[in-house]
Amino acid sequence: xxxxxxxxxxxxxxxxxxxxxxxxxxxxxxxxxxxxxxxxxxxxxxxxxxxxxxxxxxxxxxxxxxxxxxxxxxxxxxxxxxxxxxxxxxxxxxxxxxxxxxxxxxxxxxxxxxxxxxxxxxxxxxxxxxxxxxxxxxxxxxxxxxxxxxxxxxxxxxxxxxxxxxxxxxxxxxxxxxxxxxxxxxxxxxxxxxxxxxxxxxxxxxxxxxxxxxxxxxxxxxxxxxxxxxxxxxxxxxxxxxx
Length: 243
Ligand SMILES: Nc1ncnc2c1ncn2[C@@H]1O[C@H](COP(=O)(O)OP(=O)(O)OP(=O)(O)O)[C@@H](O)[C@H]1O
Ligand SMILES: [Mg+2]
Fold this sequence. Notes:
Blueprint: E1 6-17, E2 20-31, E3 35-39, H1 46-53, E4 61-66, E5 69-70, H2 76-82, E6 84-86, H3 99-110, H4 119-125, H5 141-153, E7 159-163, H6 171-186, E8 190-194, H7 198-204, E9 207-212, E10 215-220, H8 222-226, H9 229-236
Parallel strand pairs: 3-8, 3-9, 6-7, 7-8
Antiparallel strand pairs: 1-2, 1-4, 4-5, 9-10
Helix pairs in contact: 3-5, 6-7
The chain binds adenosine-5'-triphosphate (ATP) and magnesium ion.
């Protein structure tokens, strides 16, 4: 992808925790409307990558560019206003607020304004309307994951970073979630999809990168990744799930 086509550019990012490098010089690009998969064994740096892009941690080295602006080290609330939002490996909605209030709060304070999808559209899109007046604490984990995505969409994002949204979903929920993510990409939203479940990645992503110990060891199609000797070695050496 040319420099010009990239909405997000991650360049040589290093994230150190003490002496340990969770990310050790990671570079990649994501275009508007593209779903890029990010996979790798446990502890390979996937969530850290999302944390750096979404502003939770300023990287120890390297730069992050979004829509040609250098956003390295900017805080999450500023990035949300620019159009970057995320979901969490373990969703953490405001438990005592209703589903609708959680989404409204994100729309009111979190985002880029001028929603192309209204709150009701978002609730329908993620099949949350029937729970809209329920406190979030009453939702099961699949519903909380959908609420987490709803909250991110309510900020009118241009880029959504998605951390293991498929884990724990049943086959029907998986298929619906994959369709939701494809629909978002087809509306021009860029997606970075962290996932262990390969069948889900296959449905959702255009391209994948594979991390191992904070370094990128593969970039290309998921089909090619499945046949790559180093990817196979890394996955066989761990308890990573096939799917
Ligand atoms: N805040 C932190 N302080 C210290 N070490 C951290 C911190 N966050 C992550 N790490 C370490 O960085 C490494 C990468 O963690 P990360 O959570 O990014 O992995 P991951 O690829 O998302 O793994 P998983 O598939 O289990 O979610 C791990 O060794 C982790 O312990
Ligand atoms: Mg993780």
